[in-house]
Amino acid sequence: MSTQTVLSVGLLTLIGFVAGTVIFLASKFLPKEDKSLEEAARIREFLPGADCGACGYPGCFAYAQAVAKDRQVFVNHPCPTLAQDKEGMHRLEDYLGLKAKNKVGKKAVVHCTGKSEALADYKGINTCQGAAQVASGYKECPYGCLGLGDCVTVCPTGAISINNERKVAIVDWETCIGCGLCVSACPQNLIELMPANMPQYLGCNYRAARDIVGRKRCPDGCIHCKICVKVSQEGEVTWDETKDLPSFDKEYCLTATAAIEKCPRHIIKKTAAYREMSTISD
Amino acid sequence: MNMHVLEVLGLRHRTGVHPPARKSARSKAIEHMPLASKVILPLQQHIGACAKAAVKRGDEVKVGQVIAESDGFVSAPIHATISGTVKQITTITSPVTGQPVPAIIIESDGKDEWIELAPADPENLSNEQILTRIQNAGIVGMGGATFPTHVKLKPPPQKHIHTLIVNGAECEPYITADDRLMLEEADRIIAGLKIVMQVLSVTRAHIAIEDNKPQAIERMRKALAQLSPPERITVVAVAARYPMGAEKTLVKSILHAEVPEGGLPMDVGALVQNVATLAAIYDAVTLGKPLVERVVTVAGMVSEPKNLIARFGTAASSLIELCGEPDTSIDQMIFGGPMMGIAQPSYDSPIIKGTNCVLLNRSDFRDEHSCIRCGRCIDSCPMGLMPLMFVNCVKKGEYETLPNYHIANCVECGACAYNCPANIPLVSYIKTGKTELQKRGVK
Questions:
Q1: Which of these three, A68, A96, A124, is where a domain ends?
Q2: Burial of B100 (0-12, 13-18, 19+ CB in 10 A)
Q3: Which candidate in B346, B428, B434, B438 is best for mutational testing of the A interface (most A CBs within 10 A)?
Q4: Which residues of A touch B436 (CB under 8 A)?
Q5: Overall average pLDDT of the A262-273 stretch
Q6: From the CA of B417, how many Å to the nearest CA of chain A?
Q7: Mean of the pLDDT values across residues A244-270?
Q8: What is the mean pLDDT of residues B369-380?
Q9: How is B232-292 classified by DSSP, letter by letter?
């Protein structure tokens, strides 16, 4: 054996010994893992795991960490996705020993029925965003749904589908978790989050303020006759002057049955919540 | 050293592309088309603020009468292009942006009565007076960008302009409007050029013409030779390579100067004006005639391509009718050339100030494939950008990354998309990216 071999083997052994000692000391004396991380991991188990970001935190684990640090986060801003699932909510409430406020989730609605006829064949990038660059899309109505599915792509639960005949996005309220990713994906700004117990919404985004006559462009377009406001009781329907469209009360979610019936265009659409409510009252 | 020599030696990178010229209307003299019975005049035919209607329904108007006043500094008035009655003030789909714009519809009385024109000698006018005349005539850049000319001719005092470049490159395939104008109206163009030189007090001007228009080059040289006293104006034959007619490309190939990112040619002391704009400036300043008509090439799949003088607001369909039998397989009408033009939703779209060509063709849309990173878009980009990165970023939604690749420098010429073997519509992605950046307020 040459001295070189002895030297290298010896050196390596020495390094290994020193490094081992350092690791041993570190594990002995350095503070243990953050306790709240374990707690967060446990809370995370109760969460839906969609990482949708609807709560405002970047993913479920981040939300769980925030709750682990401060329980009031859960009380004031319960996970909107979990709010859809009553049993799951109960389990988390039981675990934390707290009751959450504002448990009503949110659901997305598309303010368009897609009845506007196509003006031209659109050939190009197969996204709504691309189509919106060309003549505000390819339909007669420049504000309508383009039906190329930018919202479908971003939806984490597959709740949105496209009706190919009318080229319009349709949200399934059963599976929608109200995360709002589709709201920001829509280049036409047609999607809005509504409280889950909202009984109706307007199926049109046709703003008269933007200076186009609605009735010419779409058989379902709002004609801004304001009859919905006139026939309904106070507070049910209000007129949004900036959009020049009716808006429904989002705080109390009153049912505007008279307005739904009287709308000459039948574009005040009933939601799943309307049906639920009417079965209760029956 | 001559640029061609440098290119052959491989010392200078050749950018741009070389689409087939297809200038089928080249030998057709400019014709006046019969007056339309109805014109639709969008109130925004220029970049900047939309003009404000100054007439009411039922008003009688004469040709050249202001029907919409400019609203703001970067704006231009709109004039009646036929005499008759204002039939309706409505909203139409803009032939340029596709967004709804207000428009005035005038029905002709068939008389073609003009307002009284006030001719003047430009040499007796002050710069202010000339600019006012240009502004009142509603003149905008007629190469297609439609930037109000009076604004362009009033550069901020800290920018010194030493050279005027006249853009007669006309690099897009099919279009021959400027080519014919140079052949037939060379004197008007040079008279307009002299007015602009007087306003900017520049002594040096280059007339840039692509070397595939030898007749136009010859004609302009002849017209210059007749000038007395001779001016420091030269005709430069630039290489026929798309997009030679883009302002920044022209400045680069003539003055060998790069316009800084987000800047204008005036940052390197140059100002570019299209030949048709110069002719219009002459009309406005010397004859007092507002801008109501322009030369439009009708080309593509028609049996008789033509160069027509059309009043603004004339429906494209009535121009097409004059050009023989259209091919039955036409399914697309484009305003402008095939590279940068805008497909129209209807054959009745009105001709506006920036419409230099009505092109009829069959759309050969091919399915888009994945990028293979071959770099042909980089080779062809006249601005030296990496277009594939824009597509990457837009596809992933990483809009904030776009400025790192200098998206503001893109002139949207479409050379990259033309050269792409995977048929990626790069310009659409770039436009999407730019719009998204604007929405987010990133510069």
A1: A96
A2: buried
A3: B428
A4: 129
A5: 86
A6: 12
A7: 84
A8: 93
A9: EEEEEEE---BTTTSHHHHHHHHH--PPPTT--GGGGTEEEEEHHHHHHHHIIIII-----
Q: Which residue has the higher pLDDT, A277 or B85?
A: B85
| Contact (CB<8Å) B100/A133 | no
Question: Domains in chain B, start-ordered, CATH in brackets?
Answer: 128-287 (3.40.50.11540), 376-439 (no CATH)
Matching residue, tokens 């390197």: B268
**Whether residue A143 sits in one domain with residue A67:** no
Q: Is residue A56 part of a domain?
A: yes
Domain identity same for A201 and A171:
yes
Residue B298 has pLDDT above 90, yes or no: yes
Write out the residue range of the structural domain in which residue A44 sits.
Answer: 35-96
Which residue shows structure tokens 């589709």? A182
Percentage of chain A exceeding pLDDT 70: 94
Q: What is the CATH number of the domain that holds A58?
A: 1.10.15
pLDDT of A85 strictly over 90: no
State the pLDDT confidence band at B380, using cuts at 50, 70 and 90.
Answer: very high
pLDDT value, residue B3: 54
ipTM, 2 dp: 0.74
Domain tally for chain A? 2
Of the candidates A50, A75, A96, which is a domain's last residue?
A96
Task: Say which CATH number the domain at A134 has.
Answer: 3.30.70.20
A7 touches chain B (CB under 8 A): no
Q: What is the pLDDT of residue B335?
A: 94
CA B426 to chain CA mean position, Å: 22
Q: How far is A64 from chain B (nearest CA, A)?
A: 27
Q: Are residues A148 and A272 in the same domain?
A: yes
Is A82 in the same domain as A195?
A: no
CB contact under 8 A, B429 and A125: yes
How many whole angstroms separate alpha carbon B384 and alpha carbon B241? Answer: 15
C-alpha separations of B208 from A146, B35, B201, B301 in Å: 44, 33, 20, 29
- The pLDDT value recorded for residue B83 is 95
> What confidence score (pLDDT) does residue B326 get?
86
pLDDT by residue (tens digit) across A178-199? 888 899 889 888 999 888 888 8
**Taking the model in full, what pTM does it have?**
0.83
Do both A115 and A90 map to the same domain? no
Is there a contact between B428 and A130 if contact means CB atoms under 8 Å apart? yes
In the prediction, which pLDDT does B12 show?
Answer: 58
Asked if B343 and A133 come within 8 Å (Cβ–Cβ), the reply is: no
Q: Tokens representing A48?
A: 């839906």
Residue A27 lies in a domain: no
Q: Do A129 and B432 touch (CB under 8 A)?
A: yes
The answer to whether residues A76 and A115 belong to one domain is no
Contact flag B91-A120 (C-beta cutoff 8 Å): no
The answer to the question of residue A4 being in a domain is no
Beta strands in B123-246 (DSSP E): 163-168, 204-210, 232-238
Q: Would you place residue B271 in the very low, low, confident or very high pLDDT band (cuts 50, 70, 90)?
A: very high
- Per the document, the length of chain A is 282
**Residue B255 C-alpha, separation from nearest chain A C-alpha, in angstroms:** 35
Neighbour tally for A28: CB within 10 Å: 7
User: Is residue A18 one of the residues assigned to a domain?
Assistant: no
Tokens linked to B240? 């026929």
Residues A158, A66: one domain? no
Contact A142 B435 (CB under 8 A): no
Letter string b/e over residues B394-415, b meaning 16 or more CB atoms within 10 A of that residue's CB: beeeebebbbebbbebbbbbbb
pLDDT interval class at B128 (50, 70, 90):
very high
Q: Judge whether A117 is closer than 8 Å to chain B, CB to CB.
A: no
Task: Answer yes or no: do A262 and A124 share one domain.
Answer: yes
